[in-house]
């Protein structure tokens, strides 16, 4: 299997200096590529001078995570793409279990390693943790992370699991499937694009998996800080667009209506706690979702939509579980005996 490890970079010269050496050291037989997303700092010079063996693609404009990868990957030929953020530190032996999972299972479309927090290495990291799930109203959560509650690695999710989505911070995707489905949806710019892709992969018959024998560390917030109002806007807008694109018609309108009510409650909560910029971000997200209806309609004309029977769908409301019932951990939400592990 020909693997390409691909880092998307935008103005991340300092991150590259710190994190890229571990990627190179533990790349095995894989090629290491960096797609520079039209950086305005000295990233390209750093790559050419400090990492001359890393292959480089330079995009002519910054089209975000989705568009940047879509454009850059056109120049990279491989069987398996391993797309990682510029703030990921990999560990010895991280790559082989992921490659083997794809060799063993022709139906595996995407996968992720266990993702731990770089600044608190005893705990799972926000973006992906030990595999991504989604509730009935489109709220993503993870094995190891419910909303802002990050579990300790001692929780020991020591098994592979077929899940709904793999984290875009470190996602392995079968190249043929990626291109067949048209790659990431570029209108997102950033956030939710990996969930959208994994949803479409599952609808096309592929599996999504967390490979527990592979481990990486993620700094997080390297592009947009978690408390950035633009991040709030993109997450809320893109989540609505994703549901509009991909939910089956029989449940689409009712589900989105209920989700928008929950979003409204979140907006009021932000307003009452003095987070005015977050309130405005949610309002703008909803307005821009309505502006996206023509593109949603065009997509749905030619694409199959599935949801209820896909792996990693939680058929309840994670918001109610967390805020009303006090369920803060994944095992409280989905008891161990009901979790579906993949044993090869």
Give your account of this protein's structure.
By secondary structure, this protein is α/β, with parallel strands linked by helices. It is 39% helix and 21% strand. Strands 1, 2, 3, 4, 5, 6, 11, 12, 13 and 15 form a ten-stranded mixed β-sheet that branches. Strands 8-7-14 form a three-stranded mixed β-sheet, with no helix packed on it. It has a two-stranded antiparallel ribbon with strand order 9-10. Helix 1 packs parallel to helix 2 and helix 7 (229-246) runs parallel beside helix 9 (276-291). The two termini are 19 Å apart.
Quick summary:
39% of the residues lie in helices and 21% in strands.
**How many domains make up the 3D coordinates?**
2
Structural class from helices and strands?
Answer: alpha/beta
Q: What's the tally of helices?
A: 12
Total strands: 15
The CATH architecture of the largest domain would be Alpha-Beta Complex
The fraction of residues assigned to DSSP E strands is: 15-25%
Q: What's the CATH H-level superfamily name of the largest domain?
A: Spore Coat Polysaccharide Biosynthesis Protein SpsA, Chain A
Radius of gyration: 19 Å
Distance between the termini: 19 Å
Poorly predicted runs: none
CATH class of the largest domain: Alpha Beta
CATH topology of the largest domain: Spore Coat Polysaccharide Biosynthesis Protein SpsA, Chain A
Mean pLDDT: 94
Helix content: 25-40%
Largest sheet: 10 strands, mixed
Element order, helices and strands?
EHEHEHEEHEEEEEEEHHEHHHHEHHE
- Based on Cα principal axes, name the global outline: globular
